[in-house]
């Protein structure tokens, strides 16, 4: 299952708070419908029925069921070199 670093948890909580999605909201990750091999991230008020839900501390990340196997052994982190909030995926230690 996808895991989150402390930086990612802080970023997800901050984004959800800024978006005002409420306590059930979080970051959703799904395969892009328009760009093959890419992922789309969106702040949403709740997961879809078949999403894999990852909850660490107060951070909630929803992974599309079709995307979940590809992210199974990865960790979501933030990119410190980015000028805004940006996420990266890395293998779990």
TrEMBL record:
Listed Gene3D superfamilies: HesB-like domain
Name under which the protein is recorded: Fe-S cluster assembly iron-binding protein IscA
Species name: Luteimicrobium xylanilyticum
């Amino acid at each position: 299952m996808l895991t989150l670093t402390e930086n990612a948890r802080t970023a997800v909580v901050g984004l959800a708070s800024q978006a005002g999605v409420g306590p059930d909201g979080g970051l959703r990750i799904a395969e892009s419908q328009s760009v093959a091999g890419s992922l789309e991230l969106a702040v949403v008020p709740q997961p879809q029925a078949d999403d894999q839900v990852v909850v660490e501390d107060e951070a909630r990340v929803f992974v599309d069921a079709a995307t979940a196997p590809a992210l199974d052994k990865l960790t979501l982190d933030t990119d410190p070199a980015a000028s805004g909030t940006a996420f990266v995926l890395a293998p779990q230690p």
